[in-house]
Design a protein that fits this description.
It is a single chain. By secondary structure, this protein is of the alpha/beta class. 31% of the residues lie in helices and 21% in strands. It has seven helices and ten strands. The strands form two sheets. It has a five-stranded parallel beta sheet, with helices on both faces. It has a five-stranded mixed beta sheet with strand order 6-7-10-8-9, sandwiched between helices. Helix 3 packs across helix 4 and helix 6 runs parallel beside helix 7. The relative contact order is 0.16.
Length: 243
């Protein structure tokens, strides 16, 4: 039988937001890999997974999760992680990789799957979708992501605040990921585009240290790296006005 690598989205942190299919995939796999940084602290994916599978089934693999400047170091980490997971696939046959959010949305799983595909001929790669931070923040804050014909734009602020500002100048709701370190620039972009008052941000969703607040409260102080922002457009015309 072909070996299987399954990317499982385990949501933004709240263990209750893992899907039934996701839990079944984690439990059915021979081993569950969770990504950790080289500093070794437990990440959200690992903490969530341990609600559903025994610790002895979980294997921590180091990834350069926040490395953006040193390409050699980043790619060396990807190669090492890929080699390790490839070894597990050869020995055990079925490996689940747990990722926060969704495995097809800005996930390390994408790079892992590409690497492993070149090391294990015939490997079957599958994904199980997960609830994203923007969906969880919308639910916790009451923000509506889209109405009628509105577009939805998702921007990683690691691409630069100019990319966010361009999106905010357009139509529809804008969601920003990983904006915490540039909170001051983000607040200014919201102010300049007239979106500050209606925008909300959140971090550590579903965890004891959760914070969900109006963007108008941002004072330029850096926020947690994995903060999420929702900036809806101005909506006029009453119910169905955007149809």
């Amino acid at each position: 039988m072909s070996s299987r690598l399954i990317g499982v989205g385990v949501g933004p942190g709240d263990p209750e937001l893992v899907t039934v299919k996701g839990v079944n995939a984690l439990r059915a796999a021979d081993v569950v890999v969770v990504p950790v940084m080289d500093t070794g602290e437990r990440g959200r994916a690992e903490a969530t997974v341990l609600h559903y599978v025994p610790a002895e089934k979980v294997v921590r693999v180091v990834f350069a999760l926040n490395e953006r400047t040193d390409r050699k170091r980043r790619e060396a980490a990807w190669d090492a992680a890929g080699e390790r997971v490839a070894g597990m696939l050869r020995e055990r046959g079925s490996v689940a990789f747990a990722t926060i959010g969704d495995p097809n949305v800005y996930s390390t799983f994408t790079y892992l799957a590409q690497t492993v595909g070149g090391l294990v001929p015939g490997v079957v790669v599958e994904t199980v979708p997960g609830i994203t931070a923007m969906q969880d923040l919308a639910a916790r804050s009451g923000a509506v992501l889209t109405e009628g014909t509105e577009p939805l734009t998702l921007v990683p602020v690691t691409a630069g605040s100019a990319v966010l500002k361009e999106a905010l100048a357009g139509p529809g709701t804008v969601v920003a990921y990983k904006f915490g370190r540039q909170a001051g620039e983000v607040a200014e972009a919201l102010r300049e585009t007239g979106r500050l008052e209606d925008a909300v941000w959140g971090s550590a969703l579903g965890l004891p240290e959760e914070s969900v607040r109006s963007a108008a409260e941002m004072d330029g102080t850096p926020l947690p790296y994995l903060s999420t922002l929702i900036a809806p457009p101005r909506r006029a015309g009453g119910r169905g006005g955007k149809l």
